[in-house]
């Protein structure tokens, strides 16, 4: 099985379930988006969270995907940056617990990044993200050794603001012989840096993951047409359409795979990340595109039934049985 290393914002998710959208309006956070916030806004949110029940989990888009892969038994590693604090320790301990190779850097000046996550009754999640130490990972801190021994590099789109760092990471990964996977991350991120996304996908990226909104922000088109546009620029393109399933294109081959049926969506946090984890797990095992997508749907369908991205061991055991059934089809 091929090894995968993730590169992303090392964040700790602090999750809270809301009764309605009132607090989102109060905090000026557009529903369903990921907004970067400063320390003052973080303190404002924390004062609200202190009066609510919250749940703690390691997060960040790439971090979630790598965790999902590790829980399936894949060999993984993670590159990111945390502060020398409680949250940083929590993040690193979680890597160790899940046998994810720790390629972390530590900032002595900034606190660890925190993603304040608001979950509304419809399961939609909205992020107010304070990047802190996570945003200080620089090109010059990356080394070739961080990428050696892996077959794939999984990058989250949230990192694209630092063009120099992303390009250097890709350069090192290509030198080490890795294929590049990019998750577009959020429609507003794509809109804000469209030219750079276009450069990355056209020139460097092998596998692209996008949801419906991100694909539209990138191409201006609806899912199937967007898939065709993206698919011509990379090796494998995936466009996820929520409960409508996913479209996958490789060369001239195109398939559609249904989403897993779920009675109640509790929280959509990590749905796309876990889909990517399942898909890439299948890919590292050499399975067909259809089987890869079905495994992705299985992981995605399970994570949206819990708050946050922590799935119980009992649930993972069931997921593995479901994967065996997919493979036997």
Strand content: 15-25%
CATH architecture: 3-Layer(aba) Sandwich
Largest sheet: 9 strands, mixed
Q: Please trace the helix and strand order, writing H or E for each element.
A: EEHEHEHEHEEEEHEHHEHHEEEHHH
Structural domain count: 1
Low-confidence stretches: none
- How many helix segments? 12
| Shape, per Cα inertia axes | globular
The radius of gyration over CA amounts to 18 Å
- Termini separation (Å)? 21 Å
How are the strands of the largest sheet arranged? 6-5-1-9-10-11-12-13-14
CATH topology: UDP-N-acetylmuramoyl-L-alanine:D-glutamate ligase
- Average pLDDT number: 93
Which structural class do you get from the secondary structure elements? alpha/beta
CATH class label = Alpha Beta
Give the beta-strand count. Answer: 14
Query: Could you name the CATH homologous superfamily?
Result: Ribokinase
Q: Into which percent range does the helicity of residues fall? A: 25-40%
Protein name: Sugar/nucleoside kinase (Ribokinase family)
GO molecular function: kinase activity
Pfam families: PfkB (PF00294)
Family: Belongs to the carbohydrate kinase PfkB family.
Keywords, separated by commas or semicolons:
single chain; about 325 residues; alpha/beta; UDP-N-acetylmuramoyl-L-alanine:D-glutamate ligase; 9-stranded mixed beta sheet; 5-stranded mixed beta sheet; 12 helices; 14 strands; globular
